[in-house]
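My main concern about presentation is that the manuscript never shows what a single data entry looks like. The format is easy to grasp once an entry is in front of the reader. For illustration, here is how one protein appears when written out as sequence plus structure tokens:
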Amino acid sequence: MISIVFSNEKGGAGKSGSSHLLALGCAHFEQAAYVLHSDKGAVPPAEDRPYWIVDAKDPAKCKAAFNKLVSQPGNHWVIVDLPGNEVELDKWIAPVVSMVVLPTNLEEGFVSRTLAHFDMLMKEKGNCWILPRVTGTLNADEAKQLERITATGRALPTVKHVKKVYKLNETTDQYTTPETVVNNAAKQVYRTINNHISRQLISEG
């Protein structure tokens, strides 16, 4: 069982998008996955998705669902989409997951707040990593922000920033197969996280 938490104090940094991309990537590689939706936004509809979504918006629900899923036998991933500004929940879950990932856009304000949150979480859990999201060729300002992230020594490879991760059919209000760009980004996020976890397991013996 692998547990990944996506955390960032800054709203709009990509926690929910990255969580669902990773879960979709798991499905592409036939890896069972649960998304614990503890973000304050509406819980995305689960109809016909290739992964499970758990309503964990209440902190007590999140803790109970997480403890239940991680204690179950089997080869499944538990992916937690944390809300912003829930420091106590961050501090509770960070030490007990396989990996903490902080996604961020490459804007100075996002990166500054991401780095501050990263420093706080590193005191709770050493296995924290920053996931830079890019939209295309970097401009000078974005390249500078990426250098700030890389300087931590905890930067994951950049992944494509896509907007429509969970797509609804306008007439049925149900989840539909995402477009190719989303599927490709999902596979990229899964490979990035899975490769890191695999290297970590090897180094631990």
